[in-house]
Amino acid sequence: MKIIIEKDFEAMSETTKNILLGHMSQDKRVNLSITAGNTPVGVYKRMVEIVKDSPDYANVHYYNFDEIPVPDQAEGITISDLRKLYFTPANISEENIHPLTVENYAEQDKRLALDGGLDAMMIGLGADGHFCGNMPTTTSFENLTYKVKVTGDEPWFVPGEMIKGMEFVTMGPVSVLKVKHLILIVNGAKKAEMVKTVLQGPVTEEFPASVLQLHPNLTVILDEEAASRLDK
């Protein structure tokens, strides 16, 4: 595990952008899985400036690692957010976007293997210790990509937009540990204790992200506030 501590959100976003662009600049097909949400906003803002309409990154293919469907909406929450934050402003070709959905999730692991596997995945950390859609109450460390029922207790549950009992899909711990380079980004003092728990505590399904300690090529990028509880 490599831990990088930057002064603030802007600095950690710049570092993360540079690491991703390092992967993307290879002279081969590059498969990336990237996260939605607030933490990567600064990363995407920087990447759009470089990637938009550039033929240098036509080799990069994108995969979402979880999806939450919305009733009567063509696409789910994750891919919609990724389009808004990055795909659309960067003018990413539709041919390079490979959505994970509740309809195709059972083929996700096979599809990734046939495509050469994921070169890198950028993920965030939930305040309850979840990563991707792997929640403390539903995760088994033996899961590949799987389907989960929404309980309504999830931190990201949006009343009126989501329905209790609906199903979402996520790449499980086994699938994520197959990624060649895993990049975890976390900012803010509110997650400092959980950062310490999942990075320096025992590996337990009670805090699903603790399993990331087992990844052979894990890079953790934190701002000083998120890193403030770590043992030096």
UniProtKB/TrEMBL annotation:
Residues 12-213 form the Glucosamine/galactosamine-6-phosphate isomerase domain. Keywords: Carbohydrate metabolism. Pfam families: Glucosamine_iso. InterPro entries: Glc/Gal-6P_isomerase, GlcN6P_deaminase-like, Glucosamine6P_isomerase, NagB/RpiA_transferase-like. The keyword rRNA-binding does not apply. This is Glucosamine-6-phosphate deaminase.
